[in-house]
Amino acid sequence: MALTTLSPKSLKNTSSLTAGMDPETQFHEIYRSLASYEFPWDINQALSFALFRTYAVPSVGELLDRTAEFRDRAQRRYDDTVILLEVPLLEGFDSPKGKDSIRRINQMHKMYDISNDDMLYVLATFVVVPVRWIADYGWRDLTADETRAITLYYRNLGRHMAIKDIPETFEEFAALMDSYEIEHFVSGGTPGVRRIGDATLDLFKTFYLKPVRPLIEPFSRSVMDDALLDAFGYRKPNAVFRAASIAGLKLRGRAVAYLPKRRRAQHAQDMARVKSYPNGYTIDRLGTFANSGCPVQH
User: Fold this and answer.
1) 16 domain residue, yes or no
2) Which stretch of 228-237, 248-257, 272-281 has the lowest confidence by average pLDDT?
3) Which residues contact 18 (CB under 8 A, 6 or more apart)?
4) What is the total count of domains within the chain?
5) Among 31, 158, 215, 234, which residue has the fewest nearby CB atoms (within 10 Å)?
6) Has residue 4 been placed in a domain?
7) Residue 127 in contact with residue 194, Cβ under 8 Å?
8) By CB neighbour count within 10 A (0-12 exposed, 13-18 middle, 19+ buried), where does 150 fall?
9) What is the pTM of this model?
10) Per-residue pLDDT tens for 270-289?
């Protein structure tokens, strides 16, 4: 049956690349397929917003503000983060490049007194935000096995980063993330949190053509929940603009359902928004060193 003859509902439950795979033993392959073939744009957007979400926690946002790295060299810090997180996904945790990437992440984290609770919260956003994003805006729903695979992938990443007390299930990750935000978000934001939020939104604008850049900031606020807006000290977007933004994302998902299946992998580090290394990169030179600041966007 031709793809275009299927209804949106039946399309929304179609998964050919991960069907029949065992999430308990093939979670890496499942998540790599989701991120490279099935939902590359959605997962990239969701992870960007996941990282952005963590900046609203003062212990995270204020630390990033003190390093000044993300305010002064936002593009480079964004690119380093994208690459260092994606290489283990593409190459494997136990591959030479995968090990080098995780080692570089761990070296940078050890430069600062970062609590296990903050590290655990950041890990939870990597699990929860993409699943919720795809549920809201994806071209189809994730299967239970795919959600389990995402959970297990990040549990594995967390172990490689020596994070303790990692949740077992997606539901536990979601409960952790939601409760951590209730406890730690500060109404009205803090100066450092607001500066990091503003710097991030300014970076997001550069990813798009100049004629639409004025719309990126209100669009970004439109996809934020009210608690997150308040934690950054941002005003709520215009209700009509917000409704239009959400409707546009949902419409995009429905449109993608009718496109031909992706034949070539799309990797985040190859997207046009990653600009710092046109001639390639060396993993052990990514990020920052000594006291120059931590590039991993907590």
Assistant:
1) no
2) 272-281
3) 30, 33, 34, 38, 143, 145, 146, 149
4) 1
5) 215
6) no
7) no
8) buried
9) 0.90
10) 888 888 888 888 888 887 76
